[in-house]
Specification:
189 residues, 2 domains, Nuclease HARBI1, 0% strand, 9 helices, mainly alpha, signal
Length: 189
């Protein structure tokens, strides 16, 4: 009986040592995410090419809309992703339509993190739709929208007709010039 108790206590001591090592490793673990801040790294034109929005719009319009929903959870599970980086991950995914693995590789995060980020940001943006998209409330507003759309369609149609006529005229001019060039060659030969 004493032997079993001694083995049990040795086993408990061993578990305590392992736990102490885990805690020590956890305290001294350094997290280095080598990705640079895209707002500082890219010039305005390059940033717009990659994210389809200007730096000003991202930081002063889109981010404040969803910032409350993107607050960082404080826990012991790795290095949290900042709200700005979450938004940029999502915008890059939207802009390129690329695979989540590639998007994650660009920001040095896992594919699962990219997937969760895209879902979280997409839901937050969808919640804001009512603030920016307004559908007609009654029949009168619907009629006004139909009239506006018909006017735009008519303007577009007139532009198309003018474009076709101009193209036709340019083709005739080009044909006439080719004939003149052909006549001019015969004269000089």
């Amino acid at each position: 009986m004493k032997t079993i108790l001694m083995i049990f206590f040795v086993y408990l001591d061993h578990l305590e040592v392992i736990e102490a090592h885990r805690r020590r490793d956890r305290l001294f673990k350094r997290y280095i995410r080598g990705g640079e801040n895209p707002l500082e790294f890219y010039e305005e034109v390059e940033f717009r090419k990659r994210y389809r929005f200007s730096k000003h719009v991202v930081t002063n319009v889109i981010l404040p809309l969803i910032l409350d929903g993107l607050q960082i959870e404080i826990n012991n599970r790795g290095l949290p992703v900042s709200p700005l980086i979450k938004l940029l991950i999502c915008l890059r995914f939207y802009a390129t339509g690329n695979f989540q693995n590639v998007t994650g590789d660009l920001r040095k995060v896992r594919q699962a993190t990219v997937s969760q980020t895209i879902k979280q940001v997409s839901v937050l943006l969808a919640e804001q739709l009512g603030n920016f998209i307004k559908f007609p409330d009654n029949e009168n507003e619907q009629r006004i929208n139909i009239i506006k759309n018909l006017m735009l369609l008519q303007i577009f149609h007139q532009y198309q007709v003018a474009s076709i006529a101009l193209t036709f005229r340019l083709e005739i001019l080009e044909e006439m010039m080719q004939k003149c060039i052909g006549i001019g060659k015969d004269i000089f030969l």
